[in-house]
Design brief:
Elements: E1 4-9, E2 12-17, H1 28-42, E3 49-54, H2 65-70, H3 79-89, E4 94-98, E5 101-103, H4 105-108, E6 115-118, E7 123-125, H5 139-147, H6 149-158, E8 162-163, H7 164-170, E9 175-176, H8 180-192, H9 196-207, H10 211-229, H11 232-246
Parallel strand pairs: 2-3, 3-4, 4-6, 5-7, 6-9
Antiparallel strand pairs: 1-2, 7-8
Helix pairs in contact: 1-3, 3-10, 5-6, 5-10
Length: about 250
């Protein structure tokens, strides 16, 4: 798929968002492709780790808003929900290398990754309330666990962006690097060289406390998100956002 590049180097599968002219805004087709790639990789014992990254200066501007408006994407079984399910239940390590803007899903998907490396200038943001929406991808339970309730509430309820220093402080990312893709690949290579069953079992243990809770929260978020997306409040917020963007 042209808008998501997939490459297998040894035992490391790299998925790279490749829509730089739109700041890698993600469409339904892109979600479906990534979901299918993760599902296939999960069943392929030759794949030991997955790296999610991007082409161009920005990780992702989040969901493609026109795609959202034309076809609300969070119904059960939708490409978005398939991707979220795959990234949540993926049994092998997922790493990410991010730079530039990491908006919405560009931040929330990182909470499901095992090692994230960010550039010093990355801007993370989750502007759900700004668009009349609610958090997704299990972030309403995962982010307070990382940042603490007060800071999570401040970020969610204002939609204000935050930088790599704060992201590392709260544990959203593991490391800040001027060469995030190179550094993340280095970690992926080291992890992929470890005994694979031990790696899979260790990840399962690390995730075990919250796994079922996150699954339940993701379903609840999806239902509320779908309802919010169809509301007049969200439509007005989307139109206001697009109008400002067009000026």
């Amino acid at each position: 798929m042209a808008e998501v590049l997939s490459s297998l180097d040894g035992s490391i599968l790299t998925l790279s968002l490749n829509r730089p002219e739109k700041q890698n805004a993600i469409t339904r087709d892109m979600y479906q492709f990534m979901a299918d790639q993760l599902k296939e990789a999960n069943g392929d014992f030759g794949v030991r780790a997955v790296l999610i990254t991007h082409e161009g200066p920005h990780f992702t501007a989040g969901n493609d808003l026109f795609d959202f408006l034309n076809a609300p994407p969070l119904e059960p079984g939708s490409p978005v929900m398939q991707f979220l399910e795959q990234i949540h239940t993926f049994s092998k390590p997922i790493l990410a290398a991010v730079s530039g803007n990491a908006v919405g899903i560009g931040t929330t998907m990182l909470m499901h990754c095992d090692v994230v490396v960010s550039s010093p200038t990355t801007k993370f943001s989750m502007p759900f309330v700004n668009l009349g929406l609610v958090p997704e991808a299990g972030s309403s339970i995962l982010f307070p666990r990382l940042a603490g309730y007060q800071r999570a509430s401040q970020i969610f309820l204002t939609g204000e962006p935050f930088d790599s220093v704060l992201a590392k402080e709260i544990g959203l990312i593991a490391e800040i690097s001027d060469q995030p893709r190179s550094k993340a690949t280095e970690y992926a290579t080291k992890i992929a060289s470890q005994p694979p069953n031990a790696v899979i079992q260790t990840k399962a243990l690390l995730k075990s406390e919250l796994h079922d809770k996150v699954s339940a929260v993701m379903r609840a978020e999806g239902e509320l998100f779908q309802m919010a997306l169809q509301s007049d409040e969200a439509r007005e917020a989307f139109m206001n956002f697009l109008a400002k963007k067009g000026k």
